């Protein structure tokens, strides 16, 4: 049921129902029972939600990722089940006070672990992401994505306490909390100007295994960009992988980019695989800004997609599969902010946008607008691009900035800080447009404080659970001594 809350269906109330049912299924369970419930919930949800993973390298990576996520959910399920069991002897009022925060903290801890481990983690499908098109999205600007996840689970846990204790009148409390969360307006940032941004969704053969000739992708973007010439754009944006050769190594490619810049009378933000000092990076670069060289190297390349961690180990396990992945991108260390005629632009490349650190670094660097370049060609016809677009929409709320999301094959959108879409291209559409994108100043609490409060609550929940376990163990030891 939880998958229904996310795109493509996007029925956001389903997230609350799914969380309530999951917590109720964990309540009163033994450790083995919690493992079973957590594994079934995690595997079924992620198998459906991440079904698109198998489109790239086949079913094995999908099975492995679903298995990993299922195991992490099972571990979180054990902690939550123990929290319910070890607080059973508390009074009704104490349970009302303790359990919602404890359960929400443990749920958040599991989401944070999954978002950082292994190999930089996979913070996709956080509960808050299901609310990208719902009334709770604006709260992200105050408490961040992790904060909204915590709040949703806490409301669900409080609802369960009301139902379990048959205090039906007290259901007004979680309902009131949910309404208060929904009524929180987005943190106000101030508009400081406007930038005409031209962007291209060429819809070419940009997938890793697509048949194409050398230079075909670049040629498609050159041709599609002609529709932008003479339209007064301040910047032209191409998606991830739009340049299929290194312009810093290929004079011919450099000349072709020079020609685009001259014809558009605007600098170009493009992307290519770039080699420096023997390392290959997934790099977004500004072209046509004079002598200055500005670029951003993708901080979070995709494990088993853009590089193979511990390659020697996995080659022994699945040599045929690992052999398909010939690229080996290095994680970037550059700041995700570029300067275009005094306008600070926060940038992110595809997988980057699911990581909070990239968004915060852009805000700290003075970003007035965010531009995300992405290549969704390997997942045509799936929900992947819609799920990613939901995350991008939350980033607009979170940072209080407009977001320009430019894809090779869709979905491309220009999203304002209030979530409204002012320009877009659908999946499978070839498009080029110039969008008047507002620029903003001021930092939201979400980017200033980050996930520190929720991380603190997660640690507190873990410490509380350990303390409850120690008290229980001590009581058992004392009881055994009295019997002897």
UniProtKB/TrEMBL annotation:
Superkingdom of the source species: Bacteria
Keyword annotations from UniProtKB, A to Z: Acyltransferase, Cell membrane, Lipoprotein, Membrane, Transferase, Transmembrane, Transmembrane helix
UniProt main location, coarse: membrane
Pathway participation: Protein modification; lipoprotein biosynthesis (N-acyl transfer)
Enzyme class: transferase
PANTHER family: APOLIPOPROTEIN N-ACYLTRANSFERASE
Protein's job: Catalyzes the phospholipid dependent N-acylation of the N-terminal cysteine of apolipoprotein, the last step in lipoprotein maturation.
Protein known as: Apolipoprotein N-acyltransferase
Organism encoding this protein: Microbacterium sorbitolivorans
